[in-house]
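FIELD: query
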Amino acid sequence: MKLLAAGLALAMASCEPEPAEPPAIDPMLGERAYQKCYSCHALEPDRNDLSGPTLYRIVGRSVAAEPFAYSPALRRFAEREPRWTKELLDRFAENPEALVPGTNMTFTGIADVAERRALIDYLDRQTSANAASLAYIRGGSSLRPVPSSSPVGASPSSR
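FIELD: result
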């Protein structure tokens, strides 16, 4: 009887479901979610000419670090929360006013967890790709970039 009980307990333990991994992030969902942001926020560096600061390299960046006229509320928030982590961005994207009462950002937030997660992943990937492209353009790659004064279509020997 004890052997049967032990075997049954072992069988039941092996039937427990594995912890679920988070679902894969849909890159198209992140791009679509960014459409809610692009009229106020650029993805290029130093593009603070819109109503919101650039989101270039936002993941890991210091809060309120761009040359931009941030609200006093966001500046106070930056004293408590020095960096934009993915978790902090998620909370902000869900409800900016709840996280930073008095923020000038009028966006009401994104309720869907998967959409926020995809947006943050999209911002991280896009701005990392921009950083790599800028390093190449500025000569930070082992490949030689094309000088901006070169005529389009000119061969390397004609420059």
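FIELD: remark
Residues 136 and 142 are 8 Å apart (CA to CA).
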